[in-house]
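dude i think i finally got it to work??
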Amino acid sequence: MRASELIGTTVRATDGRVLGRIVELHAVLDGPLRGGLSAPRIHEVSIARTQIGAALGYQHHPEQGPWAVRRVMGAILGRPLRVPWRHLRPGEDGLVLAGDLRSDLD
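look at this
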């Protein structure tokens, strides 16, 4: 699967609730060697309720921009959820969060 296919993918909980859409991929360079460099591997994804404002970076820097824009973007975006890739599984309509995140928070 290509990175461009993952951005915007719906992520659901195991009970079917929509958690949001993937707005960002976080990769590490520890995959198989390609030439002199290691290939990127998806380590985790950022999930937000909506993609509005994600391209502008408001999910990472909520303090940027004019006060009114910050307030509106904060209300729309909420706080993005960063989920390790290993906790996501293919589902019927997107991906399903299948792991227990509490183990990663300890």
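The helical segments are 3-6, 67-77, 102-105.
im so relieved honestly
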